[in-house]
Design a protein that fits this description.
Length: 398
């Protein structure tokens, strides 16, 4: 009996555009030294000791990807005829518009230095540099479950002396009432060592028929200097009255602070820059970088993410942040400003890893300076301009 023909559609032009985009974004567009936000991953484990101490067992039991050790032998389909049709090729105009968009993006970014980039209300990761990315997940990661839970910390990176603020919320996915939650517990692990056992109480004033909330602030007793890694694991277990249990784990950081911000000097205009000196005290000399967000003090609109790097040779020093006038003129904002969301990093050398200082809650008011006080020098990076010319040649001179 003759079987139906199969048609394979090959989107050749789409693949080509993806390749161009990957090349361009990896080679040319990595120009802004923006802070990266750590992504929090939640996974289900049935035994926290097994989770930490036996990685291979975890991969076997909870594989990230189902990849067979040996490729299976698959018999080819018994088709009498196989037809390959190539279609859906992008037009020349579509390719041109894609290239033009890449060039426009890159050209626009080159107008501003990496130490002073425009900031907008859409830049969530830059506006929230210590954000904990909580995820809502169904019980036992079963998509058909009637119930879900959410584990949230108040932030991703904690420092010694700061209590963990843990919120666990269970809720119904539909109209079905949520069974009573018997208990919620948490365990904190440093590698294979459990360093905290936490019972998380209910917040009865926030509970409804379809949602229950549990909250606690817990101070870790372990000195972060004695941890095997600053990245710890919080292992949560939730038990419902219908004997349904769920387990989930999230990661966070617990660190020893090597520096703190103690004040700000007088800012001044220098050519095309507004210079803002920030005073720090440190327990460990080295090269320090401070990143902060500048807002309008009038309407709280974001203006620019700014940064500076300076060596600190003793127990105290100054790190000068710079704002480029091109960003201020773009925003048409002469101040006053509010500097906040500050982050302090001791940069690593060849033998060390990066360390951090605690700047929680620090903010400073920056005075007003008329935009006419700044020189009209545009920001120019010769190396990046050369890359732009190379990009134009790569994309056909558009």
């Amino acid at each position: 009996m003759r079987k139906n023909k199969k048609t394979l559609i090959i989107g050749g032009a789409v693949t080509g555009l993806l390749v161009i985009a990957v090349v361009v974004l990896n080679v040319f567009l990595d120009i802004n030294d923006k802070p990266q936000v750590s992504m929090v991953q939640q996974q289900v484990f049935t035994d926290p000791q097994e989770m930490i101490t036996d990685p291979q067992t975890i991969l076997d039991k909870y594989p990230w990807q189902d990849i067979p050790e040996k490729p299976e032998t698959v018999e080819p389909p018994d088709y009498e005829e196989k037809e390959v049709v190539q279609e859906h090729f992008a037009s020349e105009e579509e390719v041109y518009l894609a290239q033009k968009s890449i060039l426009q993006k890159y050209t626009e970014e080159l107008k501003y230095p990496p130490y002073s980039v425009p900031l907008s209300s859409d830049d969530h990761s830059l506006l929230n540099p210590n954000f904990f990315n909580a995820l809502k997940t169904p019980f036992n990661y079963d998509a058909s479950s009637d119930f879900s839970h959410e584990v949230r910390l108040s932030k991703f990176r904690y420092f010694e002396g700061e209590p963990l603020a843990i919120t666990v919320r269970t809720f119904s996915n539909g109209d079905k009432p949520l069974p009573k939650v018997n208990w919620v517990t948490g365990k904190v692990f440093d590698g294979g060592e459990q360093i905290a056992d936490i019972t998380i109480p209910a917040q009865d004033d926030k509970n409804t028929e379809k949602s229950q909330t549990f909250y606690i602030e817990h101070l870790l007793e372990k000195n972060p200097k004695n941890l095997t890694s600053p990245v710890l694991t919080l292992f949560i277990e939730i038990s419902l009255d219908n004997e349904n249990e769920s387990k989930v784990s999230v990661n966070f950081e617990y660190r020893y602070s090597v520096a703190r911000i103690v004040g700000k000097g007088s800012e001044k205009v220098d050519g095309p820059h507004l210079l803002i000196p920030v005073n720090i005290e440190t327990k460990k000399p080295g090269d320090y970088k401070i990143v902060g967000n500048l807002f309008s003090a009038t309407n709280q609109d974001p203006v620019s993410q700014i940064s500076g790097v300076n060596p600190v040779k003793g127990n105290s020093g100054i790190v000068t942040l710079k704002v480029h006038s091109s960003v201020l003129k773009l925003k048409n904002d002469s101040g006053p400003y509010l500097l906040k969301n500050l982050q302090v990093t001791r940069l690593s050398d060849s033998s060390e890893v990066e360390q951090y200082g605690n700047a929680e809650g620090k903010s400073f008011t920056i005075g007003r300076h008329d935009l006419a006080e700044y020189s009209d020098e545009p920001y120019v990076d010769d190396d990046e301009q050369l890359k732009l010319e190379q990009l134009k040649q790569l994309l056909g001179g558009n």
